[in-house]
Amino acid sequence: MSSSQLSDRPSDVTLAGRLRAAALDFLFPPRCAACGRAGALLCDSCVAAFQPAGGQRCPRCWAPAAAASCGRCQSAPPTYDTLRAAFVFAGPLRQAVHAIKYDGHTAIAAPLVLLADLSALPAGIDAVVPVPMGGWRRRRRGHNQAEVIGRALANRLRLPFHARALRRVRSTSQQAKQPDLPARWANVRAAFAADGRRARGRRILVVDDVTTSGATLDACADALLEAGAASVDAWALARED
Fold first, then answer.
1. What is the mean pLDDT of the chain?
2. Residues 147, 163: contact at Cβ < 8 Å?
């Protein structure tokens, strides 16, 4: 996909619409969310530098693994059935995710999802559900990046999107500030609850922007299964290896 396909201007087939979009691009040229270069929301150079989260990985948690399954999943399997991620959380992709998360550049979520390889997603998913954000943090940012990305993914997959199927029932510290993996898992344990009306009997895909340990997605899966979901898979735009 070229940078010309990643413009944030709305498509309009009328001549007046094309002229209006051209005028807007001239007066306020879009800039790459990753490097700041004028011309497109995501420039060709930055897109070319995105690293797909491929190679040999654990089929359960998608961590890099030399064996068929990583040691952690063999000893303590996560609650979700599978976790998949599109990109490695590094370089320009990291900057693009931060632009969504901290700078409010939500328009790049859909182009990023369009660039993602979704071939590893399981079949038979019934609905997409985002990881919820705490109320004070959402008020401060004005949006939930997992919800923005999840909605774009649901649109691409043509699946129902349930933004309120999960909610936080206790406050948690930021996962990135936890000192180690056990602390990450303890931080989000029993932090979520699910709406049974939206979960019961369905195969849910729970979505986050970035995953590292998978602890948050696991805690969400646990809440969804408790509410009656038939199964839960997980997907993140990026994985921090």
1. 86
2. yes
